[in-house]
Amino acid sequence: MKLTKIDHIFFDLDHTLWDFDKNSTLAFQKMFDKFNIGIDIYQFLSVYQPINLQYWKLYREEKVTKQELRRGRLIKAFSAFNISFPIQVIDQLSEDYISFLPLNNYLIEGAVELLTYLHPNYHLHIITNGFREVQNTKLSNSNIAQYFKTVTNSEDVGVKKPNPIIFEHAIAISGANIGNSLMIGDNYEADILGAESLGIRSICFNYHREQIPQNILQVSSLNEIKNYI
């Protein structure tokens, strides 16, 4: 089933095109090496990753600030290993992690192929909740910035996905309209429900195979998206 009358395609960035998990692991390894932190990186990540997801959900819901997210996820993860650092060290760890994050720029398998396939026939855009200072660097360093006409960042708009205001802003600056737009993202709550609350059609890149409603158009690989657009 092909989706028709699509002119503008909006992508999430992290976990959809940019391989956040792989790049984040490498950033943490560099941070651990710098500070001589003697924890197995994979044991640490098994604790950190669910904590990070919880904090990002709170961040989307405006229940924690950017600083509280950055500090809290590290403090809570290290506490599971009975390790504590002064807040100044936590802040330095956080700053280093953010600066190391875009140094490695692995993309999700099939990302470049999909963008190359779509670019000649569609206007492509980014809508991201990621931090302003690293998202544009990620796009540039991973050599995919040239595919996108606009980049909408939650810090610039003042609200985060799934708030409909960020989607309205992205539509407005892109010259698109709801009827000719499509949202592609991995997060059911932020990307899919956010877009569909305005009537924007969507495809969920459900590579983590979460249980989501069967009526949602979903794929498990980026290459599958070619079957629908």
TrEMBL record:
Pfam families: HAD_2
Domain of life per record: Bacteria
NCBIfam families in the record: HAD-SF-IA-v1, YjjG_YfnB
PANTHER family membership: PTHR47478, PYRIMIDINE 5'-NUCLEOTIDASE YJJG
Protein name: YjjG family noncanonical pyrimidine nucleotidase
